[in-house]
Specification:
The chain is built from 14 helices and 23 strands. With about 425 residues, the chain is α+β, with helices and mostly antiparallel strands. It folds into two domains: about 200 residues, UDP-n-acetylglucosamine1-carboxyvinyl-transferase, Chain; about 200 residues, Enolpyruvate transferase domain (UDP-n-acetylglucosamine1-carboxyvinyl-transferase, Chain, Alpha-beta prism), CATH 3.65.10. It binds uridine-diphosphate-N-acetylglucosamine.
Length: about 425
């Protein structure tokens, strides 16, 4: 797959629009399984995760049409997917489980894959489905669920984004009231609820820890525009901060990014919200302390890009990863560029300000790969970033092109 040649660059500058959020679009696409009427999702980014999920949904009996950046989908006769291998390619594919179970009373899905950033079990999804009346049977490599769903009370031990979304999707068609306690508050969960409500669902409490779904009504189609990608936006802000750039991000929702904006301000950069967008400028110099948490805490997906920025700060930054247990893989690759990073269990100590020198590095996972591209912007000479598994294009529609439009020197070699 792709190899990126990244040369050290000066200040990034210019204006750029962010794409719609991958993590909003994927669950929205799965909502297409809930209805026979067309659901149109606008401004869908060209991501391999989107293409993979489109294949999985077709395998589940969905009809898909893609036109001018919009995806329209509906499911006349949904069914469990036949291809196990598709499911192992991405974790979000587990989100077909709730809709299939709710609509047909049966779902058999292969156990999901995705980035190898931790164990990533699906026990919370399964316990949620059980609370709605499903019988769950685990077999090696797959899980089968059956039963006619009805509303129920669910308490999540951890506010899992995927489990919250899966249970919401299932509960919309389950007769009666479902209450999810300790639900995820991520903006992408709220976006899913907004879309489902536009399809005729009755969901209250989105964005809080208690989500209540009055289920059982038939859902209809609608046209929906997903929220902008706060992680893509944050990645671009880190890139700008690393180069003392001046960049205007258009179409972002700063209210979705408060934790990241706070940390960026602590480094010394100026961030200004204007009617045209969010402008970053100035010099990032002060080290930061970052603890990843569920929303509204600092997003785990921004830990790696922020670590790339920390390489350019004066002094020692501290990163504590509390969401995933194996999410410092990029640190080893950054060290190959000359970065000073010490890892102790879930804590990374990053000594900034060292001279970085371009060399060959390998993308470790989606956000880790993006962070290595950022590190390459600050390294002397050329950094050759190998991405044999295509991690970066899973979640960024065109990161090298976006950075290039701001002045970076990055070439892509397929
Ligand atoms: C989603 C995002 C991902 C982000 C993550 C955390 C999508 C498509 N992906 O992933 O980019 O990094 O949220 O913000 O939206 N867990 C369990 N049991 C479960 C489910 C989760 O123990 O049944 C654990 C996971 O192992 C992990 C933590 O909960 O340690 C968070 O996972 P979760 O919020 O579910 O992440 P995803 O929905 O997979």
């Amino acid at each position: 797959m792709a190899t990126y040649h990244i040369r050290r660059c000066g200040r990034l500058s210019g204006e750029i629009s962010v794409h719609a959020a991958k993590n909003a679009v994927l669950p929205l696409m799965c909502a297409g399984l809930l209805t026979q009427e067309p659901l149109t999702i606008e401004h869908v980014p060209q991501l391999t995760d989107v293409h993979t999920l489109a294949d999985i949904l077709e395998d589940c009996g969905c009809t898909l049409r893609q036109e001018e950046g919009a995806v329209t989908l509906w499911a006349d006769e949904p069914r469990s997917p036949s291809g196990g291998d598709l499911l192992s390619r991405m974790r979000a594919s587990v989100l077909v489980m709730g809709p299939l179970l709710a609509r047909t009373g049966y779902a058999r899905v292969g156990l999901p894959g995705g980035c190898a950033i931790g164990q990533r079990p699906i026990d919370l999804h399964l316990r949620g489905m059980e609370a709605l009346g499903a019988q769950v049977q685990l077999t090696p490599g797959s899980v089968t669920l059956q039963g006619r769903l009805r509303g129920g009370n669910v308490y999540l031990d951890f506010p899992s984004v995927g489990a919250t979304e899966n249970i919401i999707l299932a509960a919309t068609l389950a007769e009666g009231v479902t209450r999810i306690e300790n639900a995820a508050k991520e903006p992408e969960v709220t976006d899913l609820c907004d879309c489902l409500n536009a399809m005729g669902a009755h969901i209250a409490g989105a964005g809080t820890g208690a989500i209540i779904i009055q289920g059982g009504t038939e859902l209809h189609g609608c046209t929906y525009t997903p929220i902008p990608d706060r992680i893509e936006a944050g990645t671009l802000l880190c890139a700008a901060a690393m180069t003392e750039g001046s960049v205007l991000l258009r179409g972002v929702r700063p209210e979705h990014m408060q934790a990241v904006l706070f940390k960026l301000r602590e480094t010394g950069v100026a961030l200004r919200e204007t009617p045209a967008g969010l402008r970053i400028s100035g010099r990032a110099s002060q080290p930061v302390q970052v603890r990843t948490l569920a929303y509204p805490g600092f997003p785990t997906d921004m830990q790696a890009p922020m670590m790339a920025l920390a390489l350019c700060l004066r002094g020692t930054s501290i990163f504590m990863e509390t969401v995933f247990e194996n999410r410092f893989m990029h640190a080893r690759e950054m060290a190959r560029l000359g970065a000073g990073i010490r890892i102790e269990d879930r804590i990374a100590l990053v000594t900034g300000g060292r001279v970085l020198s371009g060399t060959d590095v390998t993308s470790t996972d989606l956000r880790g790969g993006a962070s290595l591209m950022l590190a390459g912007l600050a390294a002397e000479g050329t950094t050759v970033l190998h991405d044999p598994c295509g991690h970066i294009t899973r979640g960024y529609a065109d990161l090298p092109g976006m950075l290039r439009s701001l002045g970076a020197d990055i070439t892509v070699h397929e």
